[in-house]
Amino acid sequence: MTIPVYEGEAPSLTTEQMIEVDRAMMQDMHIELIQMMENAGRNLAHLARVRFFDGNPAGKHVVVLAGTGGNGGGALVCARRLHTWGAHVQIILTHPPANFTPVPAHQLDIVQRMNLPVAGAGAIAQVHSPELIVDGLIGYRLKGAPHGTVADLIRWANMQAAPILALDVPSGVDGTTGSVLDPAIKATATMTLALPKAGLRAPEAQVQVGELYLADIGVPPSLYAEPALSLRVGALFAESEILRLDAPHNQPR
Q1: CA-CA distance, 91 to 111, in Å (whole number)?
Q2: For 87, how many CA atoms within 13 A lie in the half-sphere containing its CB?
Q3: How would you class 212 by CB atoms within 10 Å of its CB: exposed for 0-12, middle for 13-18, buried for 19 or more?
Q4: What is the pTM of this model?
Q5: Alpha helices of 95-241 — where are they, by DSSP H?
Q6: What percentage of the chain carries pLDDT values higher than 70?
Q7: CB under 8 Å to 217, separation ≥6 — which residues?
Protein backbone atom coordinates (compact mmCIF):
# COMPACT_ATOMS: atom_id res chain seq x y z
CA MET A 1 0.00 0.00 0.00
CA THR A 2 1.58 3.24 -1.15
CA ILE A 3 0.48 6.85 -1.48
CA PRO A 4 0.89 8.10 -5.06
CA VAL A 5 3.14 11.09 -5.75
CA TYR A 6 1.45 14.05 -7.41
CA GLU A 7 3.58 15.12 -10.34
CA GLY A 8 1.75 18.37 -11.07
CA GLU A 9 1.84 21.75 -9.34
CA ALA A 10 -1.06 22.24 -6.94
CA PRO A 11 -1.84 25.88 -6.09
CA SER A 12 -1.20 27.01 -2.52
CA LEU A 13 -3.61 28.84 -0.23
CA THR A 14 -3.03 31.57 2.32
CA THR A 15 -4.90 31.50 5.62
CA GLU A 16 -7.36 34.09 4.29
CA GLN A 17 -8.03 32.00 1.19
CA MET A 18 -8.61 28.87 3.29
CA ILE A 19 -11.08 30.78 5.43
CA GLU A 20 -12.91 31.66 2.21
CA VAL A 21 -12.88 27.99 1.12
CA ASP A 22 -14.45 27.00 4.43
CA ARG A 23 -17.04 29.76 4.15
CA ALA A 24 -17.97 28.85 0.57
CA MET A 25 -18.18 25.15 1.39
CA MET A 26 -20.64 25.73 4.23
CA GLN A 27 -22.63 28.73 3.01
CA ASP A 28 -22.62 28.30 -0.77
CA MET A 29 -22.32 24.52 -1.18
CA HIS A 30 -24.02 23.47 2.07
CA ILE A 31 -21.20 21.02 2.72
CA GLU A 32 -21.01 21.21 6.48
CA LEU A 33 -17.96 21.38 8.72
CA ILE A 34 -18.73 17.98 10.23
CA GLN A 35 -18.54 16.42 6.75
CA MET A 36 -15.18 18.04 6.00
CA MET A 37 -13.89 17.06 9.43
CA GLU A 38 -14.92 13.45 8.92
CA ASN A 39 -13.13 13.36 5.57
CA ALA A 40 -10.00 14.88 7.10
CA GLY A 41 -9.88 12.49 10.04
CA ARG A 42 -10.59 9.42 7.93
CA ASN A 43 -7.78 10.29 5.54
CA LEU A 44 -5.41 11.07 8.41
CA ALA A 45 -6.07 7.66 9.94
CA HIS A 46 -5.54 5.98 6.58
CA LEU A 47 -2.23 7.80 6.09
CA ALA A 48 -1.16 6.74 9.59
CA ARG A 49 -2.06 3.14 8.79
CA VAL A 50 -0.19 3.06 5.48
CA ARG A 51 2.82 5.26 6.23
CA PHE A 52 3.64 4.28 9.80
CA PHE A 53 2.06 0.86 10.42
CA ASP A 54 2.63 -1.06 7.20
CA GLY A 55 -1.10 -1.21 6.60
CA ASN A 56 -2.07 -2.65 10.00
CA PRO A 57 -2.36 -0.47 13.14
CA ALA A 58 -3.71 -3.28 15.33
CA GLY A 59 -1.94 -3.30 18.69
CA LYS A 60 0.02 -0.10 18.00
CA HIS A 61 0.17 2.61 20.67
CA VAL A 62 -0.95 6.00 19.35
CA VAL A 63 -1.20 9.29 21.24
CA VAL A 64 -3.57 11.85 19.75
CA LEU A 65 -3.09 15.46 20.88
CA ALA A 66 -6.35 17.36 20.32
CA GLY A 67 -7.07 21.06 20.56
CA THR A 68 -10.50 22.64 20.95
CA GLY A 69 -11.07 23.68 17.31
CA GLY A 70 -11.43 22.07 13.92
CA ASN A 71 -7.90 20.67 13.89
CA GLY A 72 -8.59 18.84 17.14
CA GLY A 73 -11.89 17.57 15.78
CA GLY A 74 -10.17 16.02 12.77
CA ALA A 75 -7.64 14.40 15.07
CA LEU A 76 -10.48 12.93 17.16
CA VAL A 77 -11.99 11.39 14.03
CA CYS A 78 -8.56 9.90 13.30
CA ALA A 79 -8.41 8.55 16.86
CA ARG A 80 -11.80 6.89 16.47
CA ARG A 81 -10.83 5.28 13.16
CA LEU A 82 -7.51 3.95 14.44
CA HIS A 83 -9.28 2.57 17.52
CA THR A 84 -11.76 0.67 15.36
CA TRP A 85 -8.80 -0.73 13.41
CA GLY A 86 -7.32 -2.18 16.59
CA ALA A 87 -4.85 0.50 17.70
CA HIS A 88 -4.42 1.39 21.37
CA VAL A 89 -5.27 5.09 21.28
CA GLN A 90 -4.73 7.60 24.10
CA ILE A 91 -6.35 11.01 23.56
CA ILE A 92 -4.86 14.03 25.32
CA LEU A 93 -6.92 17.24 25.36
CA THR A 94 -5.47 20.72 25.61
CA HIS A 95 -8.51 22.00 27.56
CA PRO A 96 -11.60 20.61 29.31
CA PRO A 97 -14.44 19.39 27.08
CA ALA A 98 -16.55 22.46 27.91
CA ASN A 99 -14.00 24.60 26.02
CA PHE A 100 -14.46 22.75 22.72
CA THR A 101 -16.30 24.44 19.87
CA PRO A 102 -19.54 22.66 18.85
CA VAL A 103 -18.47 20.36 16.01
CA PRO A 104 -15.21 19.17 17.66
CA ALA A 105 -17.24 18.76 20.87
CA HIS A 106 -19.52 16.38 18.95
CA GLN A 107 -16.49 14.35 17.84
CA LEU A 108 -15.24 14.29 21.44
CA ASP A 109 -18.62 13.05 22.63
CA ILE A 110 -18.42 10.17 20.14
CA VAL A 111 -15.00 8.96 21.30
CA GLN A 112 -16.11 9.25 24.93
CA ARG A 113 -19.20 7.14 24.18
CA MET A 114 -16.86 4.59 22.58
CA ASN A 115 -14.88 4.54 25.84
CA LEU A 116 -11.59 5.61 24.28
CA PRO A 117 -9.12 6.83 26.94
CA VAL A 118 -9.41 10.64 27.13
CA ALA A 119 -7.35 12.74 29.54
CA GLY A 120 -6.25 16.30 30.10
CA ALA A 121 -2.80 17.66 29.33
CA GLY A 122 -1.65 16.96 32.87
CA ALA A 123 -1.77 13.23 32.18
CA ILE A 124 0.91 13.41 29.50
CA ALA A 125 3.62 12.68 32.08
CA GLN A 126 2.15 9.18 32.49
CA VAL A 127 2.30 8.43 28.74
CA HIS A 128 5.33 6.37 27.76
CA SER A 129 6.73 4.98 24.52
CA PRO A 130 4.03 5.80 21.94
CA GLU A 131 4.60 4.42 18.47
CA LEU A 132 2.95 7.40 16.77
CA ILE A 133 1.91 10.89 17.90
CA VAL A 134 -0.87 12.71 16.03
CA ASP A 135 -0.67 16.50 16.18
CA GLY A 136 -4.16 18.00 16.20
CA LEU A 137 -3.35 20.95 18.46
CA ILE A 138 -3.55 24.04 16.22
CA GLY A 139 -4.66 24.39 12.61
CA TYR A 140 -4.13 27.05 9.98
CA ARG A 141 -5.68 29.77 12.21
CA LEU A 142 -2.58 30.01 14.41
CA LYS A 143 -2.32 33.42 16.11
CA GLY A 144 0.95 34.02 17.92
CA ALA A 145 3.33 31.55 19.51
CA PRO A 146 1.76 28.55 21.26
CA HIS A 147 1.60 28.95 25.01
CA GLY A 148 0.31 27.20 28.13
CA THR A 149 -0.72 23.56 27.85
CA VAL A 150 -0.47 23.62 24.04
CA ALA A 151 3.18 24.67 24.24
CA ASP A 152 3.82 22.00 26.88
CA LEU A 153 2.33 19.29 24.65
CA ILE A 154 4.36 20.44 21.64
CA ARG A 155 7.57 20.25 23.66
CA TRP A 156 6.60 16.82 25.00
CA ALA A 157 5.88 15.51 21.49
CA ASN A 158 9.19 16.78 20.13
CA MET A 159 11.07 15.01 22.93
CA GLN A 160 9.63 11.58 22.10
CA ALA A 161 11.29 8.98 19.89
CA ALA A 162 8.00 8.32 18.08
CA PRO A 163 7.25 9.84 14.68
CA ILE A 164 4.77 12.73 14.60
CA LEU A 165 1.96 13.03 12.04
CA ALA A 166 0.62 16.60 11.86
CA LEU A 167 -2.83 17.49 10.57
CA ASP A 168 -2.98 20.35 8.03
CA VAL A 169 -0.11 22.44 9.48
CA PRO A 170 2.40 21.47 12.18
CA SER A 171 1.33 23.29 15.34
CA GLY A 172 3.43 26.42 15.77
CA VAL A 173 4.06 26.98 12.04
CA ASP A 174 2.35 29.93 10.30
CA GLY A 175 0.35 28.47 7.43
CA THR A 176 0.75 31.57 5.25
CA THR A 177 4.35 32.68 5.81
CA GLY A 178 6.00 29.48 7.01
CA SER A 179 7.39 31.28 10.06
CA VAL A 180 8.35 28.78 12.76
CA LEU A 181 7.30 30.02 16.17
CA ASP A 182 8.53 28.75 19.53
CA PRO A 183 7.61 26.03 20.21
CA ALA A 184 6.59 24.27 17.00
CA ILE A 185 5.94 20.63 16.20
CA LYS A 186 8.73 18.92 14.28
CA ALA A 187 6.67 16.50 12.23
CA THR A 188 7.80 13.38 10.44
CA ALA A 189 4.91 13.96 8.04
CA THR A 190 2.21 16.58 7.56
CA MET A 191 -1.12 15.87 5.87
CA THR A 192 -2.56 19.16 4.68
CA LEU A 193 -6.15 19.55 3.50
CA ALA A 194 -7.86 20.62 0.27
CA LEU A 195 -4.84 22.52 -1.11
CA PRO A 196 -1.39 23.01 0.40
CA LYS A 197 -1.01 25.98 2.71
CA ALA A 198 1.51 28.46 1.31
CA GLY A 199 3.72 28.39 4.40
CA LEU A 200 4.31 24.65 4.16
CA ARG A 201 6.54 25.25 1.14
CA ALA A 202 8.65 27.97 2.77
CA PRO A 203 12.30 26.87 3.19
CA GLU A 204 12.30 27.72 6.90
CA ALA A 205 9.36 25.39 7.54
CA GLN A 206 10.73 22.27 5.86
CA VAL A 207 12.21 20.73 9.00
CA GLN A 208 8.88 21.15 10.80
CA VAL A 209 6.74 19.87 7.91
CA GLY A 210 8.66 16.69 7.08
CA GLU A 211 7.03 14.65 4.32
CA LEU A 212 4.14 16.60 2.79
CA TYR A 213 0.85 14.94 1.86
CA LEU A 214 -2.40 16.41 0.54
CA ALA A 215 -5.84 15.01 1.34
CA ASP A 216 -9.26 15.43 -0.21
CA ILE A 217 -11.97 16.87 2.05
CA GLY A 218 -14.57 17.17 -0.71
CA VAL A 219 -13.99 20.67 -2.12
CA PRO A 220 -15.43 20.86 -5.66
CA PRO A 221 -12.87 22.23 -8.17
CA SER A 222 -15.51 24.71 -9.35
CA LEU A 223 -15.45 26.39 -5.91
CA TYR A 224 -11.83 27.42 -6.41
CA ALA A 225 -12.74 29.07 -9.74
CA GLU A 226 -15.19 31.49 -8.10
CA PRO A 227 -14.12 35.18 -8.18
CA ALA A 228 -13.11 35.26 -4.50
CA LEU A 229 -10.33 32.74 -5.22
CA SER A 230 -9.92 32.66 -9.03
CA LEU A 231 -7.81 29.50 -8.96
CA ARG A 232 -7.68 26.83 -11.64
CA VAL A 233 -7.73 23.43 -9.93
CA GLY A 234 -8.43 20.21 -11.75
CA ALA A 235 -9.41 16.77 -10.50
CA LEU A 236 -6.43 16.51 -8.14
CA PHE A 237 -7.72 13.42 -6.37
CA ALA A 238 -8.76 11.35 -9.37
CA GLU A 239 -6.13 8.74 -8.54
CA SER A 240 -6.25 8.78 -4.75
CA GLU A 241 -7.82 10.69 -1.85
CA ILE A 242 -4.29 11.26 -0.49
CA LEU A 243 -1.32 12.41 -2.55
CA ARG A 244 2.32 12.94 -1.68
CA LEU A 245 3.51 16.38 -2.76
CA ASP A 246 7.23 16.13 -2.04
CA ALA A 247 9.15 13.59 -4.08
CA PRO A 248 10.04 10.66 -1.80
CA HIS A 249 13.73 9.86 -1.64
CA ASN A 250 14.76 7.63 1.24
CA GLN A 251 11.58 7.23 3.25
CA PRO A 252 12.41 5.81 6.68
CA ARG A 253 10.11 3.54 8.58
Answers
A1: 9
A2: 30
A3: buried
A4: 0.95
A5: 102-113, 148-159, 206-209, 221-224
A6: 97
A7: 36, 39, 40, 43, 193, 194
